[in-house]
What we know:
Elements: H1 2-15, H2 17-41, H3 46-57, H4 60-68, H5 74-91, H6 94-123, E1 134-140, E2 150-151, H7 152-161, E3 165-178, E4 187-194, H8 198-202, E5 208-209, E6 224-227, H9 229-236, E7 246-249, E8 252-259, E9 273-276, H10 277-280, H11 283-286, E10 292-300, H12 306-323, E11 333-338, H13 339-344, H14 347-379, H15 381-389, H16 394-433, H17 446-471, H18 476-481, H19 491-526, E12 537-543, H20 552-567, E13 572-578, E14 589-594, E15 606-613, H21 615-621, E16 625-628, E17 642-646, H22 647-653, E18 663-666, E19 669-677, E20 691-695, E21 703-710, H23 718-728, E22 735-739, H24 740-747, H25 749-783, H26 785-793, H27 798-827, H28 843-869, H29 873-878
Parallel strand pairs: 4-9, 6-8, 15-20, 17-19
Antiparallel strand pairs: 1-10, 1-11, 2-10, 3-4, 3-10, 5-8, 6-9, 7-8, 12-21, 12-22, 13-21, 14-15, 14-18, 16-19, 17-20, 18-19
Amino acid sequence: MRVWEQLRVSLRMLFHRGRAAEQLDEELRYHLDCQTEENLAAGMNAREAREAALRSFGNPALLRDQARSSWHWNWLEALLRDLRYGVRALRHAPGFAGIAILVMALGIGANVAIFAVVRNLLLRPLPYPEQQRLMAAYENSSDQFPENSVAGGIFDEWTRQNKSFTSLAMTGEAKMNLSTADGELPEELVGIACTANLLPTLGVTPTLGRNFTAAEDQPGANRVVLLSWSLYKRRFNANPAIVNRQVYIDKQPYTVIGVMPAWFAFPDQTIQAWTPFRRYYPTKEWTSLGAHDYGAVGRLRDGVSMAQAQGDLSRITKQIHDAHLDDPFVSRGATLKSLLEDTVGDMRKTLYVLLAATGCVLLIACLNVANLLVARAAARRKEAAIRTALGGGRLQLLRERLVESFLLSLAGGIAGVILAWLAVTWIRLNLSRLEVMRADLIQIDAATLAFTVGLIALCALFAGLIASFSAMSRQPLAELQDSSRGMSASRGRTRLRRALLAVEVGLTVVLLVAAGLFLKSYQRLRSSNLGCITQNVLTIRFGLYGGSYRDPAARVQFYRTLLERVRALPGVESAGFGRAVPGQGYWGDGEFTIVEHPPLPQGTAQFAINRVADAQFFTTLGIPLLRGRNFDDNLTLDHANQTLINAAFAKQYFPGEEPIGKHLKFGQKTWQIVGIVGDTRATLDDDPRPVQYYPLFAGDENGGRLVVRSSGDVERFVLPIQRIVQSIDRDLPTTNIMTMEQMLQRKTLAQRCSTVPLLAFGVLTLLLAAVGLFGVLSYLVAQRRGEIGIRLALGATRTQVLRRMMVDGLKPALAGLVLGLAASVAAVRLIRSMLFDTQSLDPVIFAGVPLLLLAVAVLACLLPSWRAARLNPVEALRTE
Length: 880
């Protein structure tokens, strides 16, 4: 019963606190009035009776406080009182509050945005049951290729011999052309050929329909396909009747057996269709031991670790390698990665760098606000001393400082969430353009908001505690004996402010150095010489898959007809066709031997990048012919035995000899070298590698890029070329239509996504450092008005005052520069591998950043120092 009574009283004190206070006041007045009436009855006059009643009764205010001390929820009342006091104090200092809130908003907003990205890409589990048991498997071919794609023959042996996986599945690229239907245009599908056990391995079932059967994953089986949810909605209007119906892919009928869930995107979000592996690829493709073309994923058995499974697959691979020492392309081991880590890929390191950068930004923001609060507390030290002398407790003053810091952090956090939402929208858009897995999941969710609340509390404690302890005085009388305006800040507080500023400037240097290195790396990457013309060049992709294009003669006829009609278009200067253009990617290599050279030792091989091109491909892209001649235009299928090599090929494989006229044997065919062309880069960040070019009209190439060059706007040829293609084959789609410059922008998008935020953080910290220097020095000038006035009255010149204040402001900046440069030398080692053609200790960056920061520091200190020098000594002394 007593518990319920206490609960009733507690709730009454919470919800009817005002009424209880009124009743207490009424009771106190009643007792005081009774005592007054007794005194009047004893013969006192009204004034004497009242004074005597007060003397005997006691101080009503003190009695009221003593009575209220036994009430419930006093801490809540004190907190609300502190909040009201904090709001009033900040409202009376709008400049200080605005700067502090803006600083907190920038720091918290940057951290919330990057945390949202890291959480959704790196920390959120994959949507598969027991996803921690899913592993991506690679072959470990060498130090150069520790994570090589899997060969079909190796995968088969892994499947038969391993004891670590409940199942292993294999995937391979499957480009497919979806034919026209119901007025729709033809479309190239980015598909995957997979073994029938892929979905059971992942633990996924189709939303509509069924999975592949083992019988469908065999050569010569019926053609079946699974559709992605996006393709199902976009192309087939989400009509469930499409299941068990036929669609035409590569001009062949495929039966749609199911539709995958909307969230499913394996191995990446570009995939639109899945088809059985062994039905799609010929037997020789998936039984080879050295053709590293496929991906593999497996589910570990219970109790088996990743290290044990990797050892198991490595043992099997080593046995295969030892049994085929004559084949240099058989790997020696295996490498495993968790599927989550494999899905994230190269984004992990970039995200960790950005997360560290935002941590620095937040720390700088907190230091900035703490410094402003320290300076503000120093300016209010007389007020604190008076309150202490009147009985105010240290804990109460500490609580008020923390509440004020909390209000600033809370307002900054709310503004920061808005900034973070804008940043997350930009990041999600760019990562989607990069086709990063799960980029669509990035959002400000409940977990991110909880992280924001934690940041707000952390920032409030950090900044508030520093300011509170700096404002504590053990000698309030000494504070009161001096003028609050004339006394300079104590030496300890001055040291604290300078130390905070020095750390802030040091962190700014680290971020600016990192941002400068990334910016220079990006500029070098963007301006790297591909070895070809990139202006006014249009590229269009075609894929001649299956159907009538299985015949090499049909492919050759298509290429000849297309090139003849495109070259005839008015305004086209040149047009050619090739497997890939420079900067587009590696796109495969092959083993070869040089007929005129002695046989290679057992277990060694020579290989180079393979490219297929016609004679005008080089002319269109401006790739120079260095020696020899180009392909003959009249090459036929039976006599297409000419090959071109690039300068890097000649340098590496024909040192000191003339390669023209020599013969290369690739597979079962021998090719004569007829010319040497200039070097190009397969990727922007790679040095030129050996390349051998084969003639397009040999008929071996089933797809590639048409390149068209013009002196004017080359994009005007897109529609005419599409009409030409439709007139040749109405079911053939054109894809990836872009200029060379657009393609290069796309290839550098990943670097831009890391460079732009880092550069923004660097500029942000530079502004924060400037705000910190300006704000703190402004407070110091305000504190030292009396001292400055005395100096001027005693004969100090305004130049001397200006110089002294500038030195006071620049001392912590110079200390921070030294600290930051030392920290930068250590920090840049962590990002060295992410830089392209840029020294980690670049002298321009390491010299330019300190000069830039020093210039900003001078400007930040100049205005308050100039104000100090312009003080009227009479007015300054009158305030004493």
